[in-house]
Amino acid sequence: MPNINTGNIKDLGTGIENDIVPILEEANELLPTLRSLDQTLYTTVHYSLAIAYTGATSYMYEMVRGAAECFQGMNTDLAETAKSWEEADDATASDFK
User: Fold this and answer.
1) How far apart (Å, rounded) are the C-alpha atoms in residues 85 and 6?
2) CA-wise closest residue to 7 among 63, 89, 71
3) Contact yes or no for 71/21 (Cβ under 8 A)
4) How far apart are the first and last CA of the chain?
């Protein structure tokens, strides 16, 4: 029977949320500033470039925000998985006593 260290599973989710999510949130704060600055530069060349740039930065903003939410949810899911594994191990162990 495999031996699973549920503490490692919990630590993995916590580490992802603590290390990755702040970086994504910081990047998300910068994107609107970049969009407002550079959009005017592209408009002077050709309006289609400004439209493409605006679409791309809007997409990145939503993608980064979605990734942050996904990683937060992953932490919750990993913690639930570890808890379920512990409960299953405890239930199995008590059946063999």
Assistant:
1) 7
2) 89
3) yes
4) 17
